[in-house]
Design brief:
Layout (H helix, E strand, L loop, with lengths): L1 H20 L7 H23 L3 H5 L8 H26 L4 H8 L8 H31 L2 H15 L6 H18 L2 H20 L1 H4 L10 H21 L9
Helix pairs in contact: 1-2, 2-6, 4-8, 4-9, 4-11, 6-7, 6-9, 7-8, 8-9
Length: 252
């Protein structure tokens, strides 16, 4: 909540001002980078300090079976279809306002072009968010609650953290999968890798949608695609389970 408060305190007023005046204050590095780094380090220190656990218990940067990586690619490739379907149907029920969609689209823009977007979306975001949610938060939840509740509540906080009501359901589903990976592998590094794979697939879809939309396997609303992606997702999850067999996390 402190993290959201700090980010919102800075981002929301600047976003509204930029939208109404056509300025670009929200994306000025000299302002954005210090706020981002400062709030992130403060939250990590706060969580670690009050957890009264060791560094390895809180952040759990354990090595994991490298074969889990291709398994996660398969699982998240299948999952993308369902997350997209969830977003499409939710936006039909409650269409997002234009200013919000414009703000969301600009997340993928960068002065460094596609590489700047990859740095921000595929590298920085997964590291920061996973260290917080599958690291600090799940360490505390796993210490005091059953793993299923730790997964559920960390996913709920993860979805709320993104401050995007139109993607809440999809983000919550993603949080459940990442939490399960955290429990299965006992490693936040595995969660960072999974999150990076997911964001990378989203990034590629956004940038190359016009080229990909004609592929039958990614067309939304087709029944055969539902079963194809369900099979892909099931195979990926099964492989993750198999390759992480016996790698059950400790309490934190």
């Amino acid at each position: 909540m402190v993290y959201i408060f700090i980010q919102t305190l800075v981002d929301l007023p600047l976003a509204i001002y930029d939208y109404n005046h056509g300025t670009d204050w929200l994306y000025q590095p000299w302002l954005k980078v210090p706020v981002f780094l400062g709030s992130t380090l403060f939250i990590l220190w706060l969580g670690y300090f009050y957890s009264r656990l060791s560094f390895s218990q809180v952040f759990s940067l354990k090595r994991f079976n490298w074969l889990t990586l291709p398994a996660m690619i398969i699982a998240f490739a299948g999952l993308q279809y369902f997350l997209t379907e969830i977003n499409i149907h939710f936006e039909k029920i409650l269409p997002p306002p234009g200013w919000f969609m414009e703000l969301f689209a600009r997340l993928f823009d960068s002065d460094l072009g596609v590489w700047g977007g990859i740095l921000r979306i595929v590298i920085i975001a997964p590291i920061v968010e996973e260290v917080i949610f599958r690291g600090v938060i799940m360490a505390g939840l796993s210490r005091n609650y059953h793993p299923a509740w730790a997964i559920f509540f960390s996913a709920l906080l993860f979805a709320l953290f993104h401050l995007n009501p139109w993607q809440f359901a999809a983000t919550f589903a993603l949080g459940l999968i990442l939490g399960w990976i955290r429990i299965r592998t006992g490693s936040v590094l595995a969660c960072i890798a999974g999150h990076a794979i997911h964001n990378g697939l989203v990034f590629l879809t956004v940038y190359y949608y016009s080229d990909l939309k004609d592929l039958a396997i990614i067309k939304p609303g087709v029944i055969s695609n539902y079963w194809i992606h369900l099979l892909i997702f099931a195979v990926g999850i099964t492989l993750i389970w198999f390759f992480s067999k016996g790698k059950v996390t400790d309490k934190g």
